[in-house]
Amino acid sequence: MGLDFGAHTCGVAVSDGLGITAQGVEIIRREKPTKYRTTLARIGELVQKYSVNTFVLGLPLGLDGIEGERCQKTRDFAEALQKRFPEIPICFQDERFTTVESHEAMEFTGVQKKAHKKYVDELAAMLILQRYMDEHRQS
After folding, report:
1. How far apart are the C-alpha atoms of 65 and 67, rounded to whole Å?
2. Which of 2, 47, 73, 81 is the most exposed place for a label (fewest CB within 10 A)?
3. Which residue from 31, 38, 27 is spatially nearest to 5, judged by alpha carbons?
């Protein structure tokens, strides 16, 4: 399961049955940045539905590759995720440019700019998961 964790949202993607392509699932929204209960509960439902065996969490590194405040918040979420699902390993994936790429993909496919916000986190989760799968595919 690919996760694009943000201040108020968490984009979710899963792989197809063969682990070849990432498929968007949804965007989980929360009112407060540090309140994970509802987000974790929904992830739990999706874990069951999709038989998730690994979390791939996007790590928002700076352009220079250095971890900043957003990375720490992502790691805090990862800690809560690991406590809730101790049997499922968490892998981090560099997510630089996934939001930009998501916006570009939506422009290319004709999605109106005002609708981008509705889909951007889900698309970013797909890109995070797809990159991870591409980098870890066994030949």
Report:
1. 7
2. 73
3. 27
User: Which two tokens mark 137?
Assistant: 């595919």
3-class DSSP assignment, residue 47: helix
Residues 6+ apart with CB under 8 A from 50: 1, 14, 25
* Interatomic CA distance for residues 58 and 124, integer angstroms: 9
Q: What is the spatial distance between Cα 91 and Cα 55, in angstroms, rounded to a whole number? A: 6
Q: Are 44 and 60 in contact (CB under 8 A)?
A: no
Q: What is the CA radius of gyration of the chain?
A: 14
Give CA separation, 46 vs 35, 49, 52, 92, in Å: 19, 5, 8, 19
* Per-residue tens of pLDDT for the chain, all 139 residues: 999 999 899 999 999 988 899 999 999 999 888 889 999 999 999 999 999 999 999 999 888 888 889 999 999 999 999 999 999 999 999 988 777 777 777 778 787 777 667 777 888 999 999 999 999 886 5
